[in-house]
Structure formats: structure tokens, C-alpha cells
Amino acid sequence: EAGVAQSPRYKIIEKRQSVAFWCNPISGHATLYWYQQILGQGPKLLIQFQNNGVVDDSQLPKDRFSAERLKGVDSTLKIQPAKLEDSAVYLCASSTHRVKESGNTIYFGEGSWLTVV
Amino acid sequence: KQEVTQIPAALSVPEGENLVLNCSFTDSAIYNLQWFRQDPGKGLTSLLLIQSSQREQTSGRLNASLDKSSGRSTLYIAASQPGDSATYLCAFGGSARQLTFGSGTQLTVLP
């Protein structure tokens, strides 16, 4: 089975510019996550989708970050304007489980590496 | 707020040694606990998933245990190999089925 696909893999931008990351989850996975991983830290959840609805975006900096999942499949994460502290790996993940069901394995993509200079 | 702590932050062992990685969490309302492996420049690969009703899971040379009462999980790696070198992350699965990660243990197995 194909894994979680992300693009671009690497991006370097100047502060105050904008950037967008794309994610294609594993086919049939209803739940999609975006995580931010700063160097030396564990991933931090930014937003969780169930199909095309937002389950949790409490840690998403909404003044500069936005995400959408049209048609409940692919998702895009946008940052505008970028700050130096946004330099991180942005990981997309997907899983089969619904919010109220017992947990299943979560599958991660290889990440999109962002450097803001 | 859930906090997940991993000790040690880094570990270096000679090949063949058995080792234990530790993970502790503060919230007792746990649904599952997962251990992941992350290689440099790569995403995360799920190693073991322990449901809250279970006490341990095994896969090959890996064994993970869960003690909800003490808020701890351990990952035991038997007969370590250089190919086991990576960062190991534990993740707490809470009520919303989100994962809260620790900062990881960077493992180096020396040939």
C-alpha cells in the first residue's frame, strides 16, 4: 500500500514570505493530522481533520497558519507570513480510526523541511 | 495539559547489549501508547502500539510495556544492532485520539 505522500520535501524562504505544503494520505484513511517538529523536539499537533471537518486546531497559530482538506482526501497547510521560528519539519499523518473508536496505528509521511531565513 | 517525558535524551551502547528506554506521562486517561522510530531526515515509523487494556506488546527484539497506574512505559530492545541507531519517540494517545509526543531518546549502537 502506498504511504503518506508530502511535497515539497524541502523549502527555504525568507521571513514574511508564504509557503504551502501538500499531503496525500493513505487511501481510505479518514483522519489526517499535521504536526510541527522543531529540531530536537517531538512532533506537536497543529491540526486534526476527520474527513473534511476540523476536529482540533487548538495549537494552530491561526494568525499565520491555515489548513484545509477539501473533499476529505488531500490537505494543504499554508503559512503566511512566515517567521524565523517556523523553521521546522511539517509532518503529515493519517489513520483509519474515527475519533470515538479505539486507537489504530498512525502513519507518517517523510515530512516537509522548512527553513525560514 | 498532558506532558510526556523521555529519559535518557541520548544513549550510546555497544552492539549486542540489551537496553531500556523510558517514557512517563502525567494524564492517567490514556487510550493507547505508541512507540515510534525516526531516522535522520525521515518521518516516523510506528513500532508498537499498546492499547490501554494491554500491559505489553512484542515485535521481534522489541518489547513495550505500559503501567497506567505509575504513568510509565518502557521500550526494551534486546541484542541491539548498529541498525537500531535512531531516535525513539513515545506518544500518548488521549481521549481525542491525538498523540502527544515526548522529545525522544537518540540511540547510538556502536559496532
Mean pLDDT over all positions of chain B: 92
Low-confidence stretches of chain A: none
| Main pleated sheet of chain A | 7 strands, mixed
Question: Biggest interface, and residues per chain?
Answer: A-B, 28 and 25 residues
Structure description:
The complex is a heterodimer of chains A (117) and B (111). By secondary structure, chain A is mainly β. In chain A, strands 2, 4, 5, 6, 9, 10 and 11 form a seven-stranded mixed sheet that branches. In chain A, strands 1-3-8-7 form a four-stranded antiparallel sheet, with no helix packed on it. Helices cover 0% and strands 47% of the residues of chain A. Chain B is mostly beta strands and 111 residues long. Chain B is 0% helix and 58% strand. Chain B contains no helices and eleven strands. In chain B, strand 4 (32-38) and strand 5 form a beta hairpin. The model of chain B has no long low-confidence stretch (mean pLDDT 92). The chains are: A mainly beta (117), B mainly beta (111). The A-B interface holds A 4, 31, 33, 40-45, 48, 55-56, 91, 93, 95, 97, 99, 101-111 and B 4, 31-32, 34, 36, 41-46, 49, 51, 89, 91, 93, 96-104.
Draw up the topology in text.
The complex is a heterodimer of chains A (117) and B (111).
Chain A: E1 5-7, E2 10-13, E3 19-24, E4 31-37, E5 44-50, E6 53-56, E7 65-68, E8 75-79, E9 88-95, E10 107-108, E11 112-116
Parallel strand pairs in A: 2-11
Antiparallel strand pairs in A: 1-3, 3-8, 4-5, 4-9, 5-6, 7-8, 9-10, 9-11
Chain B: E1 4-7, E2 10-14, E3 19-25, E4 32-38, E5 44-51, E6 56-59, E7 62-67, E8 72-77, E9 86-93, E10 99-101, E11 105-110
Parallel strand pairs in B: 2-11
Antiparallel strand pairs in B: 1-3, 3-8, 4-5, 4-9, 6-7, 7-8, 9-10, 9-11
Can you give keywords for this protein?
heterodimer; A: 117 residues; mainly beta; seven-stranded mixed β-sheet; four-stranded antiparallel β-sheet; 11 strands; B: 111 residues; six-stranded mixed β-sheet; five-stranded antiparallel β-sheet; globular
